[in-house]
């Protein structure tokens, strides 16, 4: 059985609570055929007249089922190739499903291919009107919301510039700003938090929070587990097209890390610590210290701080990658780096050897508590972890002028009074 049902009216959405879930996904399958070899030129067709193209079948979505309640913020997570975006495109009606049943109660707005339908030879002013109408607004509604769209995109100065002269970031910001004006009960959001710079991303976060408080139903695809825990009521984890877990965001985040690091996250006896990796190298300890080598648990804003990892090797490892991730109290990643990213050679280690790795940084952090997650991985192995210990060391930063955000960037003001 294959079916896709959508009830776009507000009345249908109003009855979703009594009639059923806002979104229903039952036994859905979607596959793609991948050709082994294609003959696209005339020469190839002449030389191989009797050869036929053979195919492999990629099962992108494989027997997935879940329901999303009205007003729920629902996360869809998984590694690259797990079927997240394909599933969202099936819900949006971009792809037809092969088997199963999809049902959406309420008007649907997909934040998937932002900017599709934009005409690069027209101005931003013209594109806003056309795109808003394409997304379901009336001409009158598009006119009434025009100023809000442009203000949110922060593109007032470029309103009459043709889109072909926009940067890709400006174009996506404009598309996002149009999309959020649509009167939709169900929103499909696919990795749009990468839109624009950090300040604009914060506006996106604030807008999603407003949508959540307004009771909209949101399906949210992302790799950012901190965003999932921050916004989502529940989440589903996909792997190779199949649903392998469904539940609370924190639990789904742990399972997602297990997939990435290839080992089960385990709790140390008598501790709440999360730790994973194959343990062929182990992080013995981690701490913060001052520039003179003294271990510290607090530091003044503006003073240099070192994050330190001590590790022991239980196997011969060439060029291990040492990682440092700094998070704040709510789990948001403030800074992350590795010796591989900075092209720092680490050398070869033999079983039984130990090493101490220091990473010094200029402390521009605002006053708060910060936690260090150290890690070791094999060179060239991507996410093949040897050891990772979450939130192993803590430092409290104090002092400095009060500012918003997470870092207090050195700055000064210049005020020139006019005549």
TrEMBL record:
Gene Ontology cellular component list: membrane
GO MF annotations, alphabetized: ABC-type transporter activity; ATP binding; ATP hydrolysis activity
SUPFAM superfamilies registered for this protein in UniProt: P-loop containing nucleoside triphosphate hydrolases
UniProt xrefs under CDD domains: ABC_KpsT_Wzt (cd03220), Wzt_C-like (cd10147)
Keyword Transport: yes
Annotated keywords: ATP-binding, Nucleotide-binding, Transport
Coiled coil: none
Domain ABC transporter: 44-265
Protein family (similarity comment): Belongs to the ABC transporter superfamily.
Protein name, as recorded: ABC-type polysaccharide/polyol phosphate transport system ATPase subunit
Species the sequence originates in: Conexibacter arvalis
Source species taxonomy: Bacteria, Bacillati, Actinomycetota, Thermoleophilia, Solirubrobacterales
């Amino acid at each position: 059985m294959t079916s896709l049902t959508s009830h776009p009216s507000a009345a249908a959405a109003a009855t979703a609570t009594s009639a059923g879930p806002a979104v229903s996904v039952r036994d859905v399958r979607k596959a793609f055929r991948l050709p082994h070899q294609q003959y696209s030129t005339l020469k190839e067709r002449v030389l191989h007249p009797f050869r036929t193209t053979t195919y492999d079948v990629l099962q992108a979505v494989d027997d997935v089922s879940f329901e999303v309640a009205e007003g729920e913020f629902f996360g869809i997570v998984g590694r690259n190739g797990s079927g997240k975006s394909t599933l969202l495109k099936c819900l949006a009606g971009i792809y037809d499903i092969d088997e199963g049943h999809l049902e959406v109660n309420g008007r649907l707005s997909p934040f998937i291919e932002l900017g599709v339908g934009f005409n690069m030879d027209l101005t931003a002013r013209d594109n806003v009107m056309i795109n808003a109408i394409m997304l379901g607004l009336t001409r009158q509604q598009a006119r009434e919301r025009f100023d809000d769209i442009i203000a949110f995109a922060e593109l007032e100065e470029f309103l009459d510039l043709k889109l072909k002269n926009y940067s890709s970031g400006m174009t996506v910001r404009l598309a996002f700003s149009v999309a959020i004006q649509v009167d939709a009960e169900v929103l499909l959001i696919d990795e749009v938090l990468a839109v624009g710079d950090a300040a604009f991303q914060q506006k996106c976060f604030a807008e999603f929070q407003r949508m959540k408080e307004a009771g909209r139903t949101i399906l949210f695809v992302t790799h950012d587990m901190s965003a999932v825990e921050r916004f989502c009521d529940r989440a589903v984890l996909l792997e190779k097209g199949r649903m392998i877990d469904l539940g609370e965001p924190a639990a789904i985040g742990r399972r997602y890390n297990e997939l990435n690091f290839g080992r089960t996250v385990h709790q140390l006896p008598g501790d709440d610590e999360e730790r994973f990796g194959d343990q062929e190298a182990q992080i013995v300890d981690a701490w913060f210290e001052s520039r003179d080598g003294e271990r510290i648990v607090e530091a003044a804003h503006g003073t240099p701080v070192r994050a330190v990892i001590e590790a022991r090797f239980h196997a011969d490892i060439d060029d291990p990658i040492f990682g440092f991730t700094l998070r704040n109290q709510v789990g948001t990643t403030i800074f992350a780096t590795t010796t591989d990213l900075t092209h720092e050679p680490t050398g070869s280690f033999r079983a039984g050897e130990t090493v101490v790795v220091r990473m010094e940084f200029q402390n521009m952090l605002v006053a708060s508590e910060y936690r260090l997650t150290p890690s070791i991985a094999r060179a060239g192995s991507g996410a093949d972890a040897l050891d990772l210990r979450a939130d192993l060391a803590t430092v409290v930063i104090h002092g400095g002028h009060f500012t918003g955000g997470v870092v207090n960037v050195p700055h000064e003001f210049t005020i020139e009074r006019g005549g």
